[in-house]
Amino acid sequence: MIKKNRPVTATLPDGRILTVADLPPPDTRWVASRKEIVVNAVAYELISKDEALKRYDLTEEEFDSWCRAMIDHGASALKVTFLQHYRK
């Protein structure tokens, strides 16, 4: 297996530093902030999308919906209480 050279850290637009160590555990309880971390980790190539799907037992559709929500409405759209609001 060929290991890709991936960044060790990523600097997010708001100045926060994200590392693989910041990823939630595989058996995490999903809250908006943890979803945001995973989406950013994939976007900034700290882990691949396939690794995220496998690690967190997510469907591609579920992960893609998180990405779309963040793009369209920001991280607050990942909150369960806002799902109905943003899906209209």
From TrEMBL:
GO MF annotations in UniProt: sequence-specific DNA binding
InterPro entries reported for this sequence: DUF1153, Trp_repressor/repl_initiator, WH-like_DNA-bd_sf
UniProt name for this protein: DUF1153 domain-containing protein
Source organism: Paracoccus onubensis
Lineage: Bacteria, Pseudomonadati, Pseudomonadota, Alphaproteobacteria, Rhodobacterales
